[in-house]
Amino acid sequence: MPPGSSQFSGAIAGRNVIAGSHLETGATMNNYFGGYPILQGTPPPRKCQPFSTVPFAPDRDFVDRPEILAWIHDKCAGPGARAAMVGLGGVGKSQLAIRYAHSIRDASPQTFVLWVHASTKARFEEAYRGIADKLELPERNDPEADVLQLVSNWLCNETNGRWIMIVDNADDMEVFYPKQMRTMDESSPPAPTPLANYLPQSRNGSILITSRSKDAAARLAGGHKYIKEVPAMDESQAFGLFRNKLECASNEEGAADLLRELDYIPLAITQAAAFINRRGRMTASGFLDDFRGNDKRRESLLHWDSGDLRRDGSASNSVVVTWQMSFECIYEQRRSAADLLSIMSFFNSQGIPEWILRRYSKSVAKTGEEGEAESAFDEDLDTLQAYSLITVTADSGVYEMHALVQFCTRVWLSTFSNSKQWDKEFLGLMETEFSSVDYENWAKCQQLLPHVESLYKIELSDDDSVEKWVQVLNGAASYIQTALGKYDEAEKLYRRALEGSAKELGEQHLITLSTMSNLASILLHQGKYDEAEKLNRCSLKGIEKELGEQHPDTLIAMNNLALVLQGQRKYDKAEMLIRRVLEVKEKELGEQHHSTLTTVGNLALVLYYQGKYDKAEKLNWRLLKGREKELGEQHPDTLIAMNNLALVLQGQRKYDKAEMLIRRVLEVKEKELGEQHHSTLTTVGNLALVLYYQGKYDKAEKLNWRLLKGREKELGEQHPDTLIAMNNLALVLQGQKKYDKAKTLIRRALERSEKELGEQHPNTLAVMSNLTLMLQLQGKYDKAEKLNRRALEGMKKELGEQHPETLMTMSSLAYLLHKRKRYKEASELYQRACENYKQKLGTQHPKTIACLNRFSAMQQEAKQQGLGQSRTLINNGKAAVRETSTCGFTSLNSNETTPEPENNRQSKQGSHYTRLKRRIHRKVL
């Protein structure tokens, strides 16, 4: 280097540069030391003392969220570290950042703590100018100076010391990476430097970012692994925040329910506490009552802005306004994602299945290419996830949202869009899925069932919407009844559908009449025969008038009425109606049609109840073969047909074959439905019965205990199905000669049946008849006779003298009088019973033969004692038929049904004193 020359550590710039140790007067030499200009004639910048630009004081009400704060400290500790918190607006990101900033300032006073508002370009630039002023950077006031670059350069200079920068509300990618920059090519004019370039990458500093957008956060932080999603608070944290914010502890009453309603979101909690403080005497429960009152009131409360010293002054403290900023941003960036958010806001907040969203997105996609539509949908989901508006659950393909986010989305829709149109979109989506509740669709129905409740408050603007609404409720009720076996829930849903349909469409509208029939079917299976008959007759009359006698819907209504009559033991009338239905179906649909076979099964049932086992068996074989051919061996309808055949075989005393079939049915049900499913337990009861008839009492007892406990847990102690299980267990205990236990159970069953169904109900009378026989076995003949006569009179009145159960009770009373050696009275009853059996069932029927044999045995006994009767019996040439249980015992069982193909199918289960399964049909037009 030449003598006298100067050595500079920085760059040389300026108009006049003179090398050497001397400067001429007026000359200017601009030397850059460490990247920062020193103007000739001005003093060099003094060393600045570390400071903080955090605009918020520490929050005395802050509730620690240790996991998140520990993550921030860890990620921001390294040289040049960057980290980002993402989450919903109002979830507490900025408050955590404030807490972190003050903790750094307290722990390390020599560290600069810098706060940059980044919601807009203007706010970002304003923050940097403030930092430049605090640093007293030279040239910061020069109009031509790039202040952003000045600050960035200073931060990059490691000699200036350690610093931490919080970039708050960096929500908009466009602010940091303008679209013009992302899409420009070589021919484009020069674009301004993106703001992201002014965020220094220096070993002596770290940057913490808060954002609602995962995409923006990941881009700024350097990747998704540097992102921490901030969820809502947990329950204890939320309660702590609420308590801290309240001015009066007595106002905490009802806090737990309120916090749950607010989804534990900090901004909503703070807002609610401020409102309660303002009202003075208001409590948390009072606020909750207002909040739940109606949508308008809820919207008003969520719009309320109380002001918060620890939130950015330009940001709203209203939950609605805070989130609507995100909604509008999405709407501007990606309209299809905003539409997806809109439809999702109508679902239940939890368990939203991806497959139905994908189907919706595909149906409204503007592209005809399936691949493009799929890709667009995935992009929409990514966008909503990026803004933390939806999250993926542990179950793949299932999403959830905060209920408040959904509500605020709907509020947003009502301000700029036709929200009623979105009601219709959601309703149409649900109607399509619930139009069929066949076995094949059960999995989908299960996923969608929680979302049906969202329709309860929906505004029905026209008849088409009402019809779809009723259809969804009918379909959901059908699924609840068929797949879940929850009759009370199904009944409530049917009643809601009927009430809405009658009010909006009229009582004689076909959909109203069909819904009426659906409700009647569930009432039938709950043993509520009178109301079921009334509804079915009303439904049949209206449908027949509107559509004619041979219309499929009329036939379904006719079939349903027949099944009510069957449940009332009016078998002759039921058989007549079912034969009419079958005749038309065989003619119009063919003998092997699914619906025709359904009616074949119904006819088999009513024949079975009348003791016509051979005819019932023939029809059941036809049904089973048809079902296996059409549906396969493991379909629920096939299993029911198999079960029905097994019970007919049981009635014919072909116990081994019956047991084999029932075990096959039970094995499949336990595997497919679970051991505690209503239908599975019904089959458990059927197996217990066939074991009981074979004298396998120990095995039967074990199964009956399982059945009884399951029914009590599922349905309660008073439900008719529970009483059936109790009765059957008592019969098994009686067979084991455990008379005291058996009598206790039967008495309990009788008391509850009298209370729930009435003293003259056929079910009550059947239990009464069973108690009579137990008293007889214990030698308590007076009580037994009194109760038996009461049961017989009730059955004659309710069912008629020729009804099979009346005849069984009559035969039981005759047997009791026979044992008490009152032969004359016994003979009169035996004679009446035998004559009625012959007229009703024929001379060769097992029950006729059994009655004749008992009568004959009594006559022989009377003759031996010199008390023979004047009447004689005609020898029928048949050997005696051994009774498998004490004379007249009635075994009980719940009834299971199968679906009608052209309808929203539903299996219906009821509570009747029979051993066979019953079918019911429903129709929603």
Please tell me about this protein's structure.
The chain is mainly alpha-helical and 925 residues long. The chain folds into six domains: 1-44, no CATH class; 66-229, Rossmann fold (3-Layer(aba) Sandwich); 243-303; 319-417, Winged helix-like DNA-binding domain superfamily/Winged helix DNA-binding domain (Arc Repressor Mutant, subunit A, Orthogonal Bundle), CATH 1.10.10.10; 450-625, Serine Threonine Protein Phosphatase 5, Tetratricopeptide repeat; 761-868 and 878-883, Alpha Horseshoe (Serine Threonine Protein Phosphatase 5, Tetratricopeptide repeat). Helix content is 59%, strand content 5%. It contains 38 helices and 13 strands. The strands form four sheets. Strands 5-6-7-4-8 form a five-stranded parallel sheet, with helices on both faces. It has a three-stranded antiparallel sheet with strand order 1-2-3. β10 (391-392) and β11 (398-400) form a beta hairpin. α25 runs antiparallel to α26 and α28 (636-651) packs antiparallel against α29 (655-672). The longest helix is centred in the middle third of the chain and has 22 residues, at 463-484. The model is unreliable at 1-42 and 868-925 (pLDDT under 50). InterPro entries: DUF7779 (IPR056681), NLR-like (IPR053137), P-loop_NTPase (IPR027417), TPR-like_helical_dom_sf (IPR011990), TPR_rpt (IPR019734).
